[in-house]
Amino acid sequence: MWSYFLRRVAIGIPTLWVIITVCFFLMRLTPGGPFDFDAPVPAEILANLRAQYHLDDPLWRQYLDYLWNLLRGDFGPSFKYRDFTVTTLIAQGFPVSLQNGLSALVLAIVVGVPLGIVAALAQNTRRDYIVSAAAMTGIVIPNFIMGHMLILIFGVWAKDSIFHLPAGGWENGALTHRILPVLCLALPYIAYLVRITRGSMIEAMRANYVRTARAKGLPFRLVVLRHALKSALMPVVTFLGPATAFLLTGSMVVETIFQIPGIGRYFVQGALNRDYTLVMGVTIISAALVIAMNLVVDMLYGLLDPKVRYDGR
Amino acid sequence: MMAVNLSSPHGAALEAAGEVAGRSLWQDAWRRLRANRAAVVSLIILAIIAVASIVGPYLLPWTYDEIDWDHIEALPPDFALGHYFGTDSLGRDLLARTLFGGRISLTVGILATFVALFIGVAVGAIAGFVGGKVDQVLMRFVDLMYSVPLTFFVIILMVLFGRNFILMFLAIGAVEWLTMARIVRGQTLALRGKEFIEAARASGGSTTAIILRHIVPNVLGVVMVYVTLTIPQVILLESFLSFLGLGVQEPMTSWGMLINDGAAELEINPRTLIIPAVFMTVTLFCFNFLGDGLRDALDPKDR
Hints:
The structure holds two protein chains of two kinds.
Chain A: H1 2-29, H2 43-52, H3 59-71, H4 86-121, H5 126-140, H6 143-157, H7 175-205, H8 208-215, H9 220-248, H10 252-257, H11 263-273, H12 276-304
Helix pairs in contact in A: 1-12, 4-5, 4-7, 4-9, 4-12, 5-7, 6-7, 7-9, 8-9, 9-12, 11-12
Chain B: H1 9-17, H2 25-35, H3 37-59, H4 94-130, H5 132-146, H6 150-161, H7 165-192, H8 195-202, H9 207-243, H10 255-264, H11 271-298
């Protein structure tokens, strides 16, 4: 298991390096830059700016500097948010995204998995159809429509009722400001979890060992919870790996709609402002998280499924 | 599950036997699809939306970029003036804009999916059929791309190269082909050992010919299912780009852009948000139902 882990880490690092390299050269080699101001700037000032940010160095030099700084945890200065380094910006934004993402993740698991089990156990009944239809709706309606609809319903139409919720902003994480964005983040994941749990649960309930467990007279509740659920959770874990990475790195859409200062929104702002270093920083963090979460999922397999072996093939 | 090929010896024998009418996989699938009510209704609705988006703008009294100078405020629906869904805050006809936006969204969705289809099928079929080193290299590349946050990449591309309609679907297509390649490779691996492939090889078919004549037609069923599920994803991605302000340029529009514009004034004028949102959601629903229906129709054992 450890050798497998080390091997995977050994693959992950070059992957990350390729991503960094591609991003770096893509950004540097294309026309336009962070200092294209609307009004022309005197040549000396521009020269000073370029010198300040080392944009005059040869490209290979800039690249090596960037890699070296990365190794020390320094993502470089932000081109647009003067006085801030990218590391500071990420350090500010990431906890916000992390809190929202974790809340949404917990909400999705707590609501999605039980609903999926309920639907599976009531397969082809009205209860199943209602849950499945709701899940389909949650999957199909995209985040940015859902977000605006939530704002419309709870922020505008419910203005004078007790259901009124603020339509945006963060206010240092006031609870009422979190409800809508977390809900909006969680809804599609709830829907996917319902669908996946339902599918794998139906399959598990047909398996021979479940029939055996029932035949020997185990209470139905225990058959479901102790026998069927364990194998039914495998696809759920597979799904949750990348899902967690995406949730934790902050949804660009949700953070933009609800004006939340997380790294997803920093990425969008950075991209629109051509703030190279900021965009690179967020991309690298997300890529690293995706790679790490995929690894965690593969390791979890070994704990959940004794059939999985890491050595050999 | 091969279509009976009448030119093959086996087929000739069948033909000689007379009575047996060949029924291809596709005919079978079509029959099953027609029995699926949700899929059929979705297909009809999609056809209506597509035709409306193509033809509609020509039939309406207002064009998508025309400003009704007498009503430069968001006008509620007014049939006498020909604004069946009202106007947006700049006095442009909302129905015309929604239909025109649908045209852009659907076009991007379909074109980008075909770019993805082309790359994905080519890579998948070659990797699966040729195998060995080629397979290793191609699939490692796909694995690598998988760990890249692709939405980020599309955004970076759009920012760097500007808002360009052609580039948009090329960029989206270039990131959406990965799953397609994996699926096609898996199918190809399964097909590679089959007798008819061996027969083709024995009769001297070149690798290219075998891939094009025998592999590709046989993976098309699975690919079709995936295509119907990719189109809505691409529409979403395009809308997301437009939502960030990286999509098509004014006065052109797409559903994502209309939703974004509508969101800006949802407090005073929720209609401008709801109408394009409904169009888009219905389309996405239909594609999903159609995809599910196709999957059931083409893979009947998966019930």
